[in-house]
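INPUT
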Amino acid sequence: MAKNIKDRSIDPASQEMLAVAAKAGLETAWDRFDKQQPQCGFGELGLCCRNCNMGPCRIDPFGEAATKGVCGATADIIVARNLLRAIAAGASAHSDHARDVAHTFKLMSEGKAPSYQVKDQAKLARLMKEYGVSTQVDLADAVLAEFGKQEGPIQFISRAPAKRQEIWKNLGIEPRGIDREIVECMHKTTMGVDNDHVNLLLQGLRASLADGWGGSMIATELQDIMFGTPTPVRAMANLGVLEADKVNIIVHGHEPLLSEMIVSAASDPELVDLAKKQGAKGINVAGMCCTGNEILVRHGIPIAGNFLQQELAVATGAVDAMVVDVQCVMPALGALAGCFHTKFISTSPKAKFPGATHMELKEESAYETAKQIVRVAVVNYGLRDPTKVHIPNIKSEAIVGFSVEAIVGALGGTLKPLLDTIASGAVRGVAAVVGCNNPKVKQDYGHVNLVKELIRNNVLVVTTGCNAQACAKAGLLLPEAADLAGDGLKAVCKALGVPPVLHMGSCVDISRIMVACAAIADALGCDISDLPAAAAAPEWMSEKAVAIGAYVVGSGVYTILGTIPPILGSQGVTELLTEGIKGVTGGAFAVEPDPNKAAKLMIDHIEAQRKKLGL
Ligand code: NFS
Ligand code: SF4
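OUTPUT
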């Protein structure tokens, strides 16, 4: 019996499934996390280096044994290099996702990817204008060229306020081509190249800006063009969205190129008929992690859960196929799926897994492959063992799909009403709460408590990623949740009929938050760093979150991390990121695991910003 299920998650569906898994002897990330204790102290502090084979080297944090690596690298150098590599990896993930989207967009524009169509003509026209091109194929080429651009900044940098662009220019960190910045991170961190922690961190900002204002923004924009710009839609969230009498397919990973196709294929009459012949009432598609967010915010497809629930979903015994592409997919899923009838299907040439069946999705024939995958799931339904099925009867309703366009729409066509409520003080400011789950934190505890405390203090919350799913499960994405908000925010939400927490999409959609920040700053005639705004990632785990944190701080936003980043072994890096950087980008990091204390830090920052703006 697993110990202390209530210490592992605040989500009742997770708690129920953790008990089921323990009883069945199934191992989860929480069990493996326990087996990893104590985790390596050098690693936790960022003090180990394996960048060359004179090492591995590690620095004694107490300064008694080795204070330098074999090459002479100090704690500052090693920590900064490790951090830069994490940023490069995170930026590469978002940006390689964007590349795939851009590539598919190009094939579609050439008539070679018939499964995909333009869904948002207006956004396409706006983007063509922004890039100064007159055809769709030219736009595809221009966007693809952003990845390998050798000189001069990428296009979307010009969406930032003029003052912000000036800061980046003066620091020499305007991002050039996305691939170039990531390669430069790898070059600089190889043995014997950049050994100045400040210079290393500046490159970290530059590469992360290539992600936030490049790769991630490209992914968001092209996905909106191909799959539609989100508008508010009602949907259900949590493991209870799985249905005992239907074929259940979970799409997990990140690129909607796959999940969109699975969603369409699942309503193909031929496959629905086949499901009925198998004795099922129909085909139920549910999302997980960020690809779940993509189809949630665009179509209201239910979400089965966030990152730490991927294994629990399989443990319900009711998943006929777990279909994945890239990122945040635990390699443990293969062995776990093997304990059930569940088919674990990988689809990306970039990501194969032990125990998975590989059915590769190619742009040219995506819909056909999606149909084959759905067919496998439907046939597999017949092999489901009803005695092993346990679906928690727990799900919550949510309103999702607040793209910047949708927010402006809800406000009557301009941001002015929002600015007025901020100016009047009814709404104190805006907080972005985002990021992963991590077994270091009781699942969703950091997310839900931080968000509740913020709205109680009249801070409007915007959310993406696994935080958005935590909020959905906790019922915070409903207009009724305004009852938990302070009087000012509550009145605004009631007047507009919107929730106090706005779900803006997946992690690449943090680019939407950047666009919103830029628009608000422009309207107020100030920089992003002047806004009454703050950000937090209470349960982050992924290198992608490191890249996001870097570009958000690089864009001027004060950002709280709820799990401790592996930098504390270096005084130089820690001081720079928490203090020194304030005078450089106007943003800074703070580390605060306690959600109530984190909320206080964010609120204090917002109030100080208001004072400076004379609000
Ligand atoms: Ni973001 Fe998505 Fe979740 Fe973290 Fe993973 S799903 S891209 S990285 S775990 S929020
Ligand atoms: Fe050790 Fe320096 Fe090699 Fe790193 S680069 S492993 S610190 S010798």
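end of record. The first strand starts at residue 48 and ends at 49.
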